[in-house]
């Protein structure tokens, strides 16, 4: 039995007619950039994320860049973010010659530790970017309390978290000043290429973001500020509109798969609970939890990824690969250890949690079309490895 990390062909097969029809509609209209498909996508996803406004754009990376540019982030300004995330979160800040300020993570949720944000705030802090990693909301109450105390805007990096809800039911992207999303093909809602979205409830920002994605232009050929070409193609919007009606079903599939992994890993005695942060004789595999380290109500995790932690991670991945089971490491190198950020002079000892995560975390196949027998085979194979 083969278990790929992701098989997009299985998602595409039943959608073939709808997606083809959507793409043909765009081809026949020859409205190819920022047209009615994009307007529909923006309306749909603003409503879905409980936001007043949404602005489609060229990628999740550009969504973050546009959000920072809309806040007028300048060289030397500081922007706080978790050190354990995908590179884009930090890259956009550095590209504006602002200073990315990295903080450590919460070992239970893998998201940023709000207390570390508090400690990192200076008079130069101009934005905070919590990342809703793997499809689970960051601890937004704690983060917003700190941000509001210091009057610092929050940009939610929800690239992996469209439709995710914080524990109180609020949608990711609606809690901070702006939310940024990615439709890269591997995401829970994937385009046929690159695309992204910014959400906000602030009308002035909405107007600015729409201008920002088109060179800061308004009216035509008049530019009050410098933006970029962050436009979204109609083909991508049309594909996303065709796929959107299935999103909640896909989330249910991901959540059911996650629950089944957890149930089996517990049943096989590889762990005794979820959210454990230390390896012991009974906790051979550390299982993901749908809470933060401070506990409380469960988050609505959409499991863009199901990430476990294992001590002999690289050996286990090799063993799984030998049985044709896919896996991935998100992420092996935290920002403070990246060569391109050496100039920041970070102290490695300040990031014990992120370092431990980077050394032990690995993602298992979780896509909605995965079969129960495949999950059973993955768990069985992990058990076989651990008892070797
Ligand atoms: C946390 C995070 N932020 C930003 C991005 C960037 O999105 P994109 O690949 O669409 O540019 C990603 C994409 O993987 C991501 O995972």
Description of the molecule:
- It is a single chain.
- The chain has 388 residues and is α/β, with parallel strands linked by helices.
- 37% of the residues lie in helices and 11% in strands.
- The chain has helices at 8-12, 16-29, 36-48, 60-70, 88-95, 114-120, 140-150, 203-212, 234-243, 247-267, 313-322, 352-360, 372-386; strands at residues 53-57, 78-82, 99-103, 125-128, 155-157, 178-182, 196-200, 285-286, 306-310, 361-364.
- Helix 2 packs antiparallel against helix 9, helix 4 (60-70) packs across helix 5 and helix 10 (247-267) packs parallel to helix 13 (372-386).
- The model has no long low-confidence stretch (mean pLDDT 97).
- Bound molecules: pyridoxal-5'-phosphate.
- Pyridoxal-5'-phosphate (PLP) binds next to helix 4 and helix 5.
Bound molecules: pyridoxal-5'-phosphate
- Mean pLDDT across residues: 97
- Category from helices, strands and their pairing: alpha/beta
Give the CATH topology of the largest domain.
Answer: Aspartate Aminotransferase, domain 2
What is the helical fraction, as a range of percent?
25-40%
Number of domains: 2
CATH architecture of the largest domain: 3-Layer(aba) Sandwich
Termini gap: 21 Å
**By CATH's scheme, which homologous superfamily of the largest domain applies?**
Type I PLP-dependent aspartate aminotransferase-like (Major domain)
Element-level helix/strand string: HHHEHEHEHEHEEEHHHEEHHEH
Number of strands: 10
Low-confidence stretches: none
Major sheet: arrangement of strands: 1-7-6-5
In CATH, what is the class of the largest domain? Alpha Beta
């Amino acid at each position: 039995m083969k278990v790929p990390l992701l098989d997009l062909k299985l998602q595409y097969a039943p959608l073939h007619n709808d997606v083809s029809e959507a793409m043909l509609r765009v081809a026949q209209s020859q409205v190819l950039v920022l047209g009615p498909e994009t307007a529909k996508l923006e309306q749909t996803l603003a409503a879905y994320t409980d936001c007043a406004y949404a602005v489609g754009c060229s990628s999740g990376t550009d969504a973050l860049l546009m959000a920072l540019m809309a806040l007028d982030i300048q060289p030397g300004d500081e922007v706080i973010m978790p050190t354990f995330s995908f590179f884009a979160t930090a890259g956009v800040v550095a590209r504006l010659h602002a200073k990315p300020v990295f903080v450590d993570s919460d070992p239970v949720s893998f998201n940023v530790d709000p207390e570390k944000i508090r400690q990192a705030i200076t008079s130069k802090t101009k934005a905070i970017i919590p990342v809703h990693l793997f499809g689970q909301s960051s601890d937004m109450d704690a983060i917003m309390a700190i941000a509001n105390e210091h009057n610092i805007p929050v940009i939610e990096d929800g690239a992996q978290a469209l439709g995710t809800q914080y524990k109180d039911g609020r949608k990711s992207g609606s809690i901070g000043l702006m939310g940024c999303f990615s439709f890269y093909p591997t995401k829970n809602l994937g385009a046929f290429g690159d695309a992204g979205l910014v959400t906000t409830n602030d009308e002035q920002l909405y107007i600015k973001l729409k201008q920002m994605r088109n060179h800061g232009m308004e009216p035509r050929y008049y530019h009050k500020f410098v933006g970029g070409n962050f436009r979204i193609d109609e083909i991508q919007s049309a594909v996303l509109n065709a796929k959107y009606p299935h999103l909640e079903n896909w989330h249910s599939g991901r959540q059911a798969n996650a629950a089944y992994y957890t149930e089996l890993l517990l049943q096989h005695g590889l762990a005794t609970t979820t959210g454990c942060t230390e390896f012991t004789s009974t906790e051979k595999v550390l299982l993901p939890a749908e809470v933060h380290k401070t506990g409380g109500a469960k988050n609505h995790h959409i499991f863009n990824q199901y990430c476990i932690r294992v001590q002999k991670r690289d050996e286990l991945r090799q063993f799984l690969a030998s049985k044709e089971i896919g896996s991935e490491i998100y992420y092996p190198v935290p920002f403070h250890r990246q060569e391109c950020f050496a100039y920041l002079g970070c102290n490695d000892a300040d990031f014990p949690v992120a370092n431990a995560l980077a050394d032990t975390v690995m993602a298992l196949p979780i896509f909605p079309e995965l079969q129960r027998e495949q999950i059973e085979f993955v768990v069985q194979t992990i058990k076989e490895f651990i008892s070797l």
